[in-house]
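Quick one: co-fold with iron/sulfur cluster.
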Amino acid sequence: MQAVVPFQEAVDIIKEEGGDVAKLCYQCGLCTGTCPWNLVRGFLVRKTMHQAQLGLPDFEDDDMWLCVTCNACVKRCPRGVEIIDVWRSFRRAITELGIGGIPDALRITSKNISGVGNPQGEDREKRNDWTRDLGVKTFTKGMEILYVPCCYNTYDPQLQPAARATVEILKKANVDFGILGPEMSCCGESVRKAGNESLFQSLAQSNIGLFNEAGVTRIITASPHCFHTFKNEYPELEGKYEVVHFVQFLAELIRDGRLEFTKELKKTITYHDSCYLGRHNDIYDEPREVLQAIPGVELVEMANHHEDSLCCGGGGGRIWAETKKGERFSDIRLEQAADVGASVLAAVCPYCIANFKDSIVTMNKEEVIECKDIAELVLEAL
Ligand code: SF4
Ligand code: SF4
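Sure, here it is.
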C-alpha cells in the first residue's frame, strides 16, 4: 500500500531545501542527456523536474535514490537549475515525513553514523589505530595544520595506505600537523545529500565545536567530500577555516622545494577527476601538476576528463548502496583507463578509490591496472 503523502508538509520541506528551483526548468532535456545513469539505464532527470513543477514526484520510485550528485547536469543546465538541491529536497521530505522507501543500506549507514560517528559502524575508540606505528601527534592549539583523513581511509585497510603515505610525506616536508582523536565524526557531506539534514546538522555542530575548542585554523583533507563540506557548508554554521585538499598542499610543497624526488616511477598513469574536487570546486590542475612532477611518469588522459569526467558512482550516499553489475560507473571508468594504456588509475578520493579497487577485482583486471591515491605515488618516488 502506498504511503499517504502529507502534501503541504512535503511542499514546505522541498521549498525550505531549495527544491522549488525546479520551476525555472524549461524542459530542454540537457540534464537527461548529460546524466551518467543514462549510460547504464534509463533515468529521466527532465521528467522528474517536470513532475516537481506540476506538484510532487513519485516518492516511492527507486529513482529518488539514484542521483550521485556528480554536478554534471547542473554545469550544463541553461536555466541554472540546481538539480542536486531538487533531489536533496525530495530525499529530505521522504526522510522527515516517513514516506517512500529509504534503501536499507542508507538506513543502516545513518544509524551507524549517528551512533558511533562513522559509516562503517566501527568503534570510535579505534579511529586512530591506523596511526599506531607512525607517531602522529594529536592536534593542539598553535599547531599549523589539522589533517582530516576521512572515515574511509581511517577504518578501511584497503584505503589506509593513502592516509599513511600522507603522514609520511608531511613528516618528510617537516610540516607542523596533528589529527583529532576518537571524538571526531564523519563530516556529514553524503548524509546531507542523502536527505538526512538533521543528522548533518548535528555532525557539523559537533565537529565545529571540536575544531574551535582545539584552535583549528587550517585544515587539510584527504577526501574531496570532507573538503567540500568544510569549505562550502560549515561556514553556514559559523565553522570558518582555511580548507585545502591534500593534493593542493602537495603541489604547494613541490613548488616550494620542500619535497625532493629521488626515484623514477616509470609508469603510464591516468588521473580520475573526482566530482567533488573537479566539477564542484574547479580543481583540475594541481593533481596533474603533482603527477607530472614525479620523474618518469607519463600522464595520459581518458576519454572523459576535467569538467567532462565520469563519476565513479559513489556520491550522494551511493557509496553505501549496492549497485548491480552492469550499472557500475566505476567499471566503465576502468575500461576507459585501460583503453589509453594506463597501468595506474590515480585518484584522490576515498570513495572513488574504493569503487575502482572493487571494479578491478570484479572485472579480473589485477594484472592490467592498479588504483592508487596520488599520495602513495608521490611517496614511492621520494
Ligand atoms: S537542463 Fe535544466 S532546463 Fe533543461 S530540462 Fe534539465 S533542469 Fe530543465
Ligand atoms: S547530479 Fe549527476 S547523477 Fe545527479 S541527476 Fe545530475 S547528472 Fe545525474
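If it helps, The chain is about 40% helix and 10% strand.
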